[in-house]
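Per-residue structure
===
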Amino acid sequence: MSDSQAAAQWELGKLVHELDMQNSARMRERVAKLGLTTAQASALRELTGPMTMSELAGRMACEPSNATVVIDKLESQRLIERRAHPSDRRAKQLTLTPEGAEQREQLLAVLSEEPLVTGLAQRELDALRDLLERAISRD
């Protein structure tokens, strides 16, 4: 790889990192309005129906042990509850409580107020999303 190619790769990495930092800051600011951390918001956002801790952790892109800490906090806030799994005696299913479902709706409203990535038209945002999905091989 030439120096100019290495420099271009470095610059791309810096830009992606800066975009991630801006996105994370905007996300923290928005979910803080609801008294949530970004991890708690992620759990509420991803809990679209009953699922196990492993399933939720996969959707949150974290280890089950890390998700457990988040779920424990949401459970103490009475937003999520653990129930017996209908077909696996060893597993628990996570479900939203009525309060949790209401908090999730508020979260979705806050997240959709304005784009997290600003300065781009919708078609550009769509193209960026498509490019990022291809770059991380998640079609």
Remarks:
- The first strand starts at residue 80 and ends at 84.
